[in-house]
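Q: What would this chain look like folded?
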Amino acid sequence: MANNTRSERRTEVNVSGKGSVSAEVSKVSITFVAVLGVAVGLWSLACIVGGLAASGGPLQLAGDWLKAVTGM
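A: My prediction, written as structure tokens:
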């Protein structure tokens, strides 16, 4: 037993690049809101173009809109 040697092993794990969960959720939320904003903008543009086509031009569109709002 005199020949036995004692050795210790120390294992260390260092984690670098710590990320916050709330920061990642914020990135996803901002991206989602931006995509929805683009979708709403494209939809409104399509509605305006459709209204222009249906009424016959920008002046008639304004007149038809005014008639629809006032009920005349």
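Helices lie at 21-55, 58-70.
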